[in-house]
Structures are given as structure tokens and as C-alpha cells.
Input
Amino acid sequence: MKKTLILGILLQGSILAYSQVGINTTNPQATLHIDGGKDNPLKDKPTNLQQANDVVVTANGNLGIGTISPNADAALDIASANKGVKFPSISLKSSDSPAPLKEHVAGMVIYNTAKVGDLTPGLYINNGTEWVQLMTLASSKKQIKEAKAQAEVAALAAGSVPVGGVLYYATNVLPDGYLECDGSAVSRTTYADLFAVLGTRYGIGNGSTTFNLPDLRGEFIRGYDNSRGVDTGRVIGTWQKGSFIAGGAGPNMDSVIPFVVASTGTLMSTLVNGLGWDLLHNDVYTANYPNTVKANNGNSDNSTNTQLINVSDNGSDYAYGVSRPRNVAMMPIIKY
Output
């Protein structure tokens, strides 16, 4: 009797171990099968419509909702033609705080309902140290647009612009692969390709490990004459001074060019701004223009004319500078 009882228990345990349990169905299709709608057939496989209200757990622990055949690589496989998945809605405090959760848990997904600090309502995933918002449609379009622009710049930098090529950029944020033409000294090793093109044409740097970039800040570019005869004697990369102009202000008729004649003096700053001159510092004038250039004070004897020195702002005085065309400021950059 005792042996019979033990055999029965073992046999029953074996049957239970390999049996399928069905709830609301006598035709289970998995280790655990719940037929929520009680509409599955007595035999054969239920249809997709009948599976829509079913939940199964396979022998490997895969959970299927709306399907009796969950994907083997998915811990949870949800199938539905007219329903979505709703994540828990909670109000986060900040992106770096786990609250109202107790701690950061990498992979945790929630729907944040709060609009506070850097948080806006939407789906968030926790990366183990902070909450990161999942991409929305708006941010997706923006990122696609930005990625496209970056790809175009990268393609331009990689294929169309040779090393040493100079462009004008509409912002002051450098694109990848470019340096600002600001005359700075940069490494001959880090920018070896650019150094191979420029050499020390724009400056020797420290003489051993660096070289200078072109300094195009505030400068206009002029085409290299290359034996045409319009701008003779020029070498690639050389600087050229501007065409010198001078003028006077106020009732002083002894000035070179009395642009303003008035009963009261007109300040030089008013004259300069009105005519659109780039004023020269005295050191620029004395270094690049001959000291024989003087303001005509009406005397035939050149020695008594006025030497152009520091620009003043008197009402009846003179100014000097260089002319400039209409322009828009952009940042010159060079491909390295």
C-alpha cells in the first residue's frame, strides 16, 4: 500500500510537471493559457480574433498578450490591432532625481506628467543616473533636420573642399573639420595636412612645433593677380593696406576736404560714422603710410602743413582712415 501511494504521488507530479493549465479554456496552447473572452475552440488553434483576449506564459517564461505565440526573444510580446500600451503616469521632480521612485533604475520607463525645470510631459527612460526623454515627433523631425545639415557639411568638408580651402560661415560655431582664420598658432603635428599646404606662409608660430593660420578677421579677400598686371608685385597670402582718405569737419576750410561746413563745429566721430570710414590707429598710419602725407592748411609750403597724427574729436579738426564697401560680417574658416 505504501509503495502504491508513493508511485501515485510520483506519477501525479510528473503529469503536473508536463501538463498545460488553461483558465476559461479546455484547450490550452501554452504552459499557462488564460482565455479572457471564453471564446476559444474546444480543439485546434484559436483564431487571431480569439487570441486578442488571451494571455499565455510559455515553458521558457515568455509572456504573450493578445498572442499565443510570443516571440522567443521577447520577455513580453503584446499583439493588438486597436490598443496601445500605457506606461505608469507619474510626476517627476527633476531629471536628476529619481523621485517619486526610491532610486534610479536603468531601463525604467514612465510617462511624466509634470512640467518643471527641464522636464516636459512625455515618455522618459532612466539611464541609471537621470531621466532622459524619449524622442517625440517634433524632436525627431528636428534631429533629422540637424543630422541632414551636419551630413551635408561633413560631405562638403570631406569631398568638395580641399585642405587649405577657405569658406565664410554664417555663424560663429565652427563645423567639424575647420578652424577659424584668426591668425592663431596651431600644432604642426595635429594639423599636419594643413601645415603641408600652408607651411609658414602666414607665420612661423613658435618656429618649431606650431605655425600660424591666416588672419582674415576684419579683412576683405582680393583675387591673386598672378601676372595679370592689375595688382602687380603681390605674393599669395600677403597683406595690402587700404586706400588712404582724409577729410575735415567743421567750419575750418583749411582741411583737405571740407565735407562739413557749418557755423558750429561738427565732431570727427559724426563725420567718420556718416562717411563710413575705417579709422586707423596712429601706429597703423605711421607704419604703412609715408610721413609726407599731411593735412593741407592752405599754405603752399608743405613744411607748414599739418602732420597727420592721432585722430582727434575736435569740432574743427581732421580725420583719416580707409574706405570700405558695403559688407556683412561672417566668420572665415579654413579646412584642415
